[in-house]
Amino acid sequence: MKPIAIALTGASGMPYALTLLKELIKTQDRIYVMISQAASIVISMETDLDLGNDTKSIERNLSQYLGAKDGQIEVFSKNQWTAPVASGSNPPRAMVVCPCTMSTLSAIANGHGDNLMHRAADVVIKEQKKLILVPRETPYSAIHLENMLKLARLGVVIMDANPAFYQQPNSIQDLVDFVVARILDHLDVDHNLLPPWQG
Ligand SMILES: Cc1cc2nc3c(=O)[nH]c(=O)nc-3n(C[C@H](O)[C@H](O)[C@H](O)COP(=O)(O)O)c2cc1C
């Protein structure tokens, strides 16, 4: 099975991204990861993870943090145009941008391809694979909403970081798990984060 690509951008919400990756390594042989410069800053502010600067250090530190096997996580740098995700002939099975900034959302909505993450999303859209964006901003301006509407009309799943409370969460991790469970459901990836709602 082709890998899933996960892109982390510099919005608040890194616990969502790290929980998503922790879940994916349980079932996926290989996961492609792209991390924007702003995301590295937000990771250092929101978590105890120190990624380092160069791509190889980021790959090693992230793999260690997640408990991933050797080669399970492959990190691509922002100008790595030779990466498989840059080509329409080898798109990932699906791509998730989590968390997704308004600036990356705009770049994707407007077809920019000036970094690998934007190009990969462009490829996923044109090859009609699944693209899930997990935006976080409040309030949304009309620009943000128009960009989201444009993407939703193309079939992109806009799944904002918006946990529910009917599961009676006991912790922040419970809230994070709620959002990640919905992302995994849309990826058709099995998980035990929370039971499906039975009514
Ligand atoms: C601590 C912190 C939190 C941020 N939170 C958000 C956010 O929730 N949503 C957002 O759109 N931008 C947020 N930003 C701003 C983005 O990081 C900034 O617009 C950046 O240029 C995005 O670049 P990227 O999309 O390449 O990651 C935040 C920045 C910092 C430092």
UniProtKB/TrEMBL annotation:
First-level EC class: transferase
Organism lineage: unclassified sequences, metagenomes, ecological metagenomes
Every Flavoprotein domain range: 3-187
Organism this protein belongs to: hydrothermal vent metagenome
Protein name: flavin prenyltransferase
EC number: 2.5.1.129
Single GO MF descriptor: carboxy-lyase activity
UniProt keywords, alphabetically: Flavoprotein, FMN, Lyase, Prenyltransferase, Transferase
Pfam families attached to this UniProt entry: Flavoprotein (PF02441)
Recorded family membership: Belongs to the UbiX/PAD1 family.
